[in-house]
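Long-time lurker. I teach an intro course on protein structure, and each term I like to show students one example going from raw sequence to a predicted 3D structure in token notation. This year I'd like something fresh instead of my usual example. Would anyone be willing to generate the tokens for the chain below so I can use it in lecture? Attribution to the forum is fine with me.
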Amino acid sequence: MDLGQVVYIYSRLILGTFASFLAIMLWARTRDVAWMLVIIGAIAAYADTIYAVLSIFGIVSGSGLSLGAMPVMAIFLPILPTIFFIAAFSVMVTRKFRRR
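-- Reply from a regular --
Happy to contribute to a lecture. Here you go:
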């Protein structure tokens, strides 16, 4: 593993940890559905980072459920935050158009 990969892994882990920590702190203070979905998306993005790091180190293997040659977790985890962000933005757009 070269220096670039180490910096990449550490930066994703540190920034993801900080974002998840702030998201969890905000979770306790908000009751808004759109914000809750954004918070869940941020936590899901961190879960994807953790899974990617574990697979780089060989701790998690792709021997479980797979779709073709790709493990389902490797397909599902990267798109999960985007799904939550789409849901959050849809809630906000619906609110804005409903008020008019």
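Some talking points for your students: The first strand starts at residue 66 and ends at 67. The chain has a mean pLDDT of 91.
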